[in-house]
Amino acid sequence: MLRSLSKVLNSNMFRPTTSMNGYLYRNYGSDARLGDKEITDRVIEIVSNYDKVLGKTVSPSTTFKELGLDSLDAADVLVAVEEDFGIEIPDEEADRISSLKETIDFIKKTPTAK
Amino acid sequence: MASNITAIKTMRPAVVSFTYELARKRCLKLYRNCIRSIPYLIQHYNLSYNFSEMKLKFREDFLQFSQVKQKNELDRLAFIGETELYDAMSLLKTRSHVVNYFETHTHKKQLSDSEQLLKKFFE
């Protein structure tokens, strides 16, 4: 019984052919994920609008320490990022994030960011 | 009886941090939660404070204990903060409790301003 079932499953009947590929994937709308450049620009804008960073040059490679932000400031910035992108950064991740690059990478990984 | 105790422990585990770093992380988590809860506090308690004013008050409270280096002390402070925030968010406090907490900061500031004005006047 199992052998016959495995034969049926292994047969070509259940394997998607190249011509069927288009029908096997749901494609109701275009990918809603944000682009890398948009994420970077928005994060830089949020950080550069923070009181203590005003007037300093902010690039994606700078760390919060280099900008003169302490741990509480970093938490402030992360909450502002959360609000702007409509996501919630888990505590383990928030403890780990210490630079703009890490923030951008986390948002890239999050599909619900908008 | 023993099973009852284990059930209570699993429900409400004693939160004691193993290291100083963990206690510090717990405090930062509390700070993030405080800031995240500001819009809800304004809405639920019909507060007339600015977002940045309330954030400043939280920040002042945290900076007040920035010199604390003992793990147990940090745990104690974090527990007090967590409980207060939980009570406020669960609407177990009244509006006057919350207003009183935020008023201490703004009231102090107003007094110092008026004092400065008076000083200038008398000079």
Automatic annotation (TrEMBL), chain A:
Main location, first listed in the record: mitochondrion
What sequence ranges are listed for the domain Carrier?
37-111
Entry's localization field: Mitochondrion
What InterPro entries does the database record attribute to this sequence? Answer: ACP, ACP-like_sf, PP-bd_ACP, Ppantetheine_attach_site
**Family to which this protein belongs:** Belongs to the acyl carrier protein (ACP) family.
PANTHER family linked to this entry: ACYL CARRIER PROTEIN (PTHR20863), ACYL CARRIER PROTEIN, MITOCHONDRIAL (PTHR20863:SF28)
Q: What does this protein do?
A: Carrier of the growing fatty acid chain in fatty acid biosynthesis.
User: Could you tell me what this protein is called?
Assistant: Acyl carrier protein
- Organism whose genome encodes this protein: Tieghemostelium lacteum (Slime mold)
Q: What taxonomic classification does the UniProt entry list for its organism? A: Eukaryota, Amoebozoa, Evosea, Eumycetozoa, Dictyostelia
UniProtKB/TrEMBL annotation, chain B:
**Which key words tag this protein in UniProt?**
Electron transport, Membrane, Mitochondrion, Mitochondrion inner membrane, Respiratory chain, Transport, Ubiquinone
Tell me which CDD domains the record gives.
Complex1_LYR_NDUFA6_LYRM6 (cd20266)
Record carries keyword Cell division: no
Subcellular location(s) of the protein:
Mitochondrion inner membrane
Q: Which InterPro entries match?
A: Complex1_LYR_NDUFA6_LYRM6, NADH_Ub_cplx-1_asu_su-6
Please tell me where this protein is predominantly located.
mitochondrion
Q: Cite a GO CC annotation.
A: mitochondrial inner membrane
Gene Ontology BP terms: response to oxidative stress
Origin, by domain of life?
A: Eukaryota
Membrane topology label: Peripheral membrane protein
Q: Which family does it belong to?
A: Belongs to the complex I LYR family.
Entry protein name: NADH dehydrogenase ubiquinone 1 alpha subcomplex subunit 6
> Where does this protein come from, organism-wise?
Tieghemostelium lacteum (Slime mold)
